TrEMBL record, chain A:
GO cellular component, one term: membrane
Protein name, as recorded: cytochrome-c3 hydrogenase
The UniProt record lists the keyword 4Fe-4S: yes
NCBIfam families with a match to the protein in the record: H2_NiFeSe_small, hydA, TAT_signal_seq
Residues in Cytochrome-c3 hydrogenase C-terminal domain copies: 237-315
Provenance organism: Halodesulfovibrio spirochaetisodalis
Domain (NADH:ubiquinone oxidoreductase-like 20kDa subunit) ranges: 52-205
Residues the entry annotates as binding [4Fe-4S] cluster 1: 52, 55, 155, 193
Residues binding [3Fe-4S] cluster, per UniProt: 281, 299, 302
TrEMBL record, chain B:
Organism field: Halodesulfovibrio spirochaetisodalis
Catalytically driven reaction(s): 2 Fe(III)-[cytochrome c3] + H2 = 2 Fe(II)-[cytochrome c3] + 2 H(+)
Family classification: Belongs to the [NiFe]/[NiFeSe] hydrogenase large subunit family.
Full protein name: Periplasmic [NiFe] hydrogenase large subunit
Main location: periplasm
Length: 318, 492
């Protein structure tokens, strides 16, 4: 199933309701990919560690492009525990087979953190040859073979809630895990609890475009260039929420909401962590543009490396 | 490609052991170990393979943080965890939620019920019956999958329609998420469900935005989801006869219809030994003899609950504790709620049960105990519950008042305790909160997965899904399709 150029451009184009991926990037990006698509969808292996599947569920909400087109036309999702038909050991064997067949050329998406305590026993993802495969095992095996890792969600990027104070599982984000295991594969963080579907699909789009233009190694180099210090793509995570907030005027005029249901007023007194949070939620909004956290209540800073401990208590001013 | 790994020879009359790890198309990490003799499952062990430690992470935090933290237990049903958490907080803080707050909470949780039930049938379970496109992630699959067309090659059109609905349901479930986000803020993981009520007051415009989307979802449920479940079910009459398990269930009650929590859309109740019983939370305890937790913490009521992991404990095989009600292994979920409430069946259901099974069924219990407590009965219960709640959502849309307060202010007390009882789409859910020095002193969660997917209890009695696996037909050990089919029917 290949895509022609016009179809792909259409895929990336947003409607009035939702901000399409193309509106984040130069529309030429979509044009460029569409020109070089040859029907070979890049293989993607999606691992779930210590997480809640919320990132996958969020991805299902992708509108522009539609999730059906992402799954059937843009990528070849060879392993995903929540979506795939296959099950049991053969599914794990299939995953390893794809990793060998496309050594250095497949993308590894990681959702959830990697719990390293108790020999990795806090997260078993399956079996192969009657042997338990822990998340740690799978990351050690697949990490070095992947062209790049997309660390999807705050757990995968920075540890997130499974790594919060009080946890005993020694859960780690992918970058930290790779550093300790000396795995050199590039990691792109797409944090958020969960991430917005556009952040995931948009990052994949940019990566595919760069690879098409510059080849695998140089293309990935171009992707790394757009990352901030926390490994996040700046087009999505380059702006501060408070500085761009529709309630900023209220803040400047000292109009501060003291109750959740007040329609007017900056949310800072209610605990809003917008001033310490960088993402484009303020303009992208969520669920096809229907609402977002600050309009509804407060930002809890879920895209930041210090989430949740550094943002807690959520309902007290920082 | 061969089926799942097994030890022992097929068809020799000897026992074959089959391990399915991972069980896919569920939320979380689950392994099924079954023993098959003479084409049937004779023993089963379910192993939950992940432990994150939410109950420890919550200790010492501001109690209000819990409704955000606990949502991250499950990305499919965060609204239910938020609901249980804020109900526990309301109880501990002594807060009286306004009518408008209660109704808005119902509308948020209700939209996610629709989302979750539709997602479960189409995107998790349907591939057990329906052949998807010949490309990843729909292949590879079992060679002999016992799909619709394997049973009857004339069902090509039914299969094709179901695949179309799989795609359409992606949109419908996303629309449900938009409905959640109207007052929830975003989804997954909402901001809008807070202690004291909800954070955003409904407006006329927002109620209309919800209603417009709801109409689309309602049409899909009436015209596609409900009839398709019965159509698929009619091709598998044998699956109405297997998977009965303990025939015991518990429901806590969900969607309060008044502020005294005395009336619910789905009422609370317990059923075992063929009898109905009133729900009494003091009769719940959690065993851990076969779970990777310290033995000294076994048998405790949740209000005294302790969570001390022991990942290398001998003899244990799961990170899931084993809750019991009055010592009984009870299942939870749509079947439990429908059995306890026994509401009328949809006209579509009544007609199709008559036509396809010759069954005169007006209310859910008219299905009979054996057919209701079955693999396919659990799918029917979920679809019928989806239909049953449509009129309630319609009524809440009329009941909710524009621009009227949904939030009640409160003080966090120095000490206090409270339990929030609700139902996630997949089953009974309780959160227990104990506050000391205005911080969380203890937090205990007994979720649907704990009730359904638990290992043996201290007496050695199998958990509900384990027991329901007994007798499941596995005529071909290379293609043990019915094992995960049964597990998925629970939406574990």
């Amino acid at each position: 199933m290949s895509l022609n150029r016009r179809d792909f451009v259409k895929l990336c184009t947003g409607t009035v309701a939702g901000l399409g991926v193309s509106q984040m990037f130069n529309p030429a990006v979509c044009e460029a990919i569409s020109g070089s698509l040859n029907g070979n969808r890049p293989p993607v292996l999606w691992l779930q560690g210590s997480g809640c599947t919320g990132c996958s569920v969020s991805l299902l909400n992708s509108v522009n492009p539609h999730i059906k087109d992402v799954l059937l036309k843009v990528i070849s999702l060879e392993f995903h525990p929540t979506v795939m038909a296959w099950e049991g050991e053969p599914a794990i064997e299939h995953m390893y087979k794809i990793a060998d067949k496309y050594d250095g050329k497949f993308f590894l998406v990681v959702e959830g953190s990697v719990p390293t305590a108790a020999d990795g026993k806090y997260c078993v993802i399956g079996e192969a040859d009657h042997r338990e495969i822990t998340m740690v095992d799978a990351m050690k095996e697949l990490g070095p073979k992947a062209a790049a890792v997309l660390a999807v969600g705050t757990c995968s990027a920075y540890g997130g809630i499974p790594a919060a104070e009080g946890s005993q599982t020694d859960a780690k984000g992918v970058r930290q895990f790779f550093e300790e295991e000396e795995i050199a594969t590039p990691v792109v963080n797409i944090p958020g609890c969960p991430p917005h579907p556009d952040w995931i699909v948009g990052t994949v789009t940019v990566a595919l475009d760069a690879i098409n233009k510059h080849g695998l190694a140089d293309g990935l180099g171009k992707v790394v260039e757009i990352l901030d210090d926390e490994g996040r793509p700046t087009p999505f995570f380059g702006e501060n929420i408070h500085d761009n907030c529709p309630y900023l005027d209220d803040f400047d005029n000292d109009v501060l909401a003291t109750k959740f249901t007040e329609v007017k007023g900056c949310r800072m007194e209610l605990g809003c962590k917008g001033p310490d949070t960088n993402s484009d939620c303020y303009k992208r909004k969520w669920n096809n543009g229907i609402n977002w956290c600050v309009q509804n209540a407060v930002c809890i800073g879920c895209v930041e490396p210090d989430f949740p401990d550094g943002k807690s208590p959520f309902y007290e001013p920082a | 490609m061969s089926g799942c790994k097994r030890n022992g020879a097929a068809g020799s009359g000897k026992a074959a052991h089959i391990a399915i790890d991972p069980v896919t198309r569920i939320e979380g990490h689950l392994k099924a170990d079954v023993t098959v003799e003479n084409g049937k499952v004779v023993d089963a062990k379910l192993s939950g393979g992940m432990y994150r430690g939410f109950e420890q992470i919550l200790r010492g935090r501001d109690p209000r943080d819990s409704s955000q933290i606990v949502q991250r237990i499950c990305g499919v049903c965060p609204t239910a965890h938020a609901t249980a958490s804020v109900m526990a907080q309301d109880a501990a803080f002594g807060t009286k939620v306004t009518d408008n707050g209660r109704v808005t909470r119902n509308l948020i949780l209700g939209a996610n019920y629709l989302q979750s039930h539709i997602l479960h049938f189409y995107h998790l379970a349907a591939q057990d019956f329906v052949q998807g496109p010949d490309s990843a992630p729909f292949v590879p699959r079992y060679q002999k999958s016992d799909l619709l067309e394997d049973r009857n090659k004339d069902l090509k059109a039914v299969n094709a329609a179901a695949v179309d609905q799989y795609i359409e349901a992606l949109d419908v479930r996303a629309i449900c998420h938009e409905m959640v986000a109207i007052w929830g803020g975003k989804m997954p993981h909402v901001q809008g469900i807070i202690a004291g009520g909800t954070s955003e007051m409904p407006t006329k415009d927002r109620i209309l935005e919800y209603a417009v989307r709801f109409k689309k979802v309602r049409d899909f449920v009436n015209n596609k989801y409900l009839p398709t479940v019965y159509t698929v079910g009619s091709v598998y009459p044998d699956l109405f006869k297997v998977g009965q398990g303990h025939k015991a269930c518990v429901a806590y009650g969900v969607f309060p219809l008044d502020n005294a929590n005395s009336k619910f859309m789905m009422k609370s109740g317990v059923y075992y030994d063929g009898k109905d019983h009133d729900f009494d939370p003091s009769k719940i305890h959690e065993d851990v003899k076969y779970s990777w937790f310290e033995d000294s913490t076994s048998g405790l009521h949740y209000s005294k609950g302790k969570t001390v992991p022991a990942p290398h404990k001998d003899g244990a095989y799961s990170f899931v504790k084993a809750p019991r009600y009055d010592g009984v292994a009870c299942e939870v979920g749509p079947l439990a709620r429908m059995w306890v409430e026994n509401p009328p069946l949809s006209p579509v259901g009544q007609k199709m049960l008559k036509e396809k099974f010759g069954l005169d069924a007006k209310n859910f219990r008219d299905l009979g105990e054996d057919a209701a407590f079955s693999l396919m009965g659990r799918h029917v219960a979920r679809a019928e519950e989806t239909w049953y709640m449509l009129d309630f959502i319609e009524a809440w849309l009329k009941e909710v008042k524009p621009d009227e307060e949904t939030f009640t202010a409160y003080e966090i007390p120095e000490s206090g305790e409270g339990t929030g009882f609700t139902e996630a789409p997949r089953g009974a859910l309780l959160h227990y909160l104990d506050v000391k020095d205005s911080k969380i002193n203890n937090y205990q969660i007994v979720s649907a997965t704990l009730w359904n997917c638990n290992p043996r209890d201290d007496k050695g009695v199998r958990g509900p899904v384990e027991e329901a696996l007994i007798g499941i037909p596995v005529p071909d050990v290379d293609n043990p399709v019915n094992v995960a089919r049964l597990i998925r029917a629970f939406d574990p």
